[in-house]
Design goal:
By secondary structure, this protein is mainly alpha-helical. The chain has two domains: 16-141, Intergrase catalytic core (hpI Integrase, Chain A); 160-202, no CATH class. Helices cover 49% and strands 7% of the residues. Helix 2 (37-48) packs antiparallel against helix 4 (88-101). It is globular, with a radius of gyration of 17 Å. Strand 2 (70-75) and strand 3 form a beta hairpin. The relative contact order is 0.17. The N and C termini lie far apart (36 Å). Strands 1-2-3 form a three-stranded antiparallel sheet.
């Protein structure tokens, strides 16, 4: 698992969003396992790939390729599409979830609670799953499901991944969107250097 920092995001986010600490994230994901195989896979997937809620709920079953053990993620916000390999631990969670789900004709990876035959999980449904697991975990808020995305990006910054790697993994169209994550250690000199580099790329 990626190394994870335990501090709020920098001023670029206006202090409205915070990342999970390592202990908090482990506590949260352990709670997801206790809730069910769907919740375990869904929330681990959201964290690992830094999914937006819109990306999560619109993943189709055909987007996961068993032959290559890969997943296609579509960034609805920008129209970007990327193919990612599924690590072994996520592949096993996927298999457990699908065995429990069984055979059905619904093409979506995560089904709607009321219309499971045809519809996909809604944004509100995904947020409800997150809130239920968060409450069970005992992790103190405020937290939102989007914090899993920010935690993923901050982990990448902490372990030394480049601004370009973060932008690519997070499906950002602009390096400036990824800039907020390199300020998590209050290293103003490093942040200024990276900001200048990003400005040079986009001028």
């Amino acid at each position: 698992m990626l190394n994870r920092p335990g501090r709020p995001l920098g001023t670029g986010m206006g202090g409205r969003t915070r990342a999970f600490s390592p202990a908090e994230l482990d506590q949260f994901l352990q709670a997801a396992k206790r809730v069910g195989k769907r919740e375990d896979f869904m929330l681990a997937l959201t964290y690992y790939f830094g999914l937006r809620v819109s990306e999560l709920v619109e993943i189709k079953r055909e987007d996961i390729n068993p032959g290559t053990r890969s997943i296609i993620i579509r960034a609805k916000k920008h129209g970007l599409t990327k193919d990612y390999p599924l690590p072994e631990r996520l592949w096993k969670k996927y298999q457990s979830y699908m065995r429990q789900r069984g055979e059905d004709a619904n093409p979506w990876l995560f089904r709607h609670r009321i219309y499971p035959e045809t519809e996909h999980l809604t944004r509100e449904g995904a947020m409800s799953v997150f809130e239920r697991v968060l409450q069970l975990s005992g992790v103190q808020g405020p937290h939102s499901i989007h914090d899993l995305r920010h935690t993923c990006a901050m982990d990448m910054a902490r372990r030394g991944d480049s601004l370009y790697q973060i932008a690519s993994w997070m499906r950002h169209r602009s390096l400036m969107s990824s800039m907020r994550y390199i300020n998590y250690q209050n290293d103003q000199a490093h942040a200024a250097t990276m900001a200048q580099r990003a400005a040079e790329v986009f001028k």
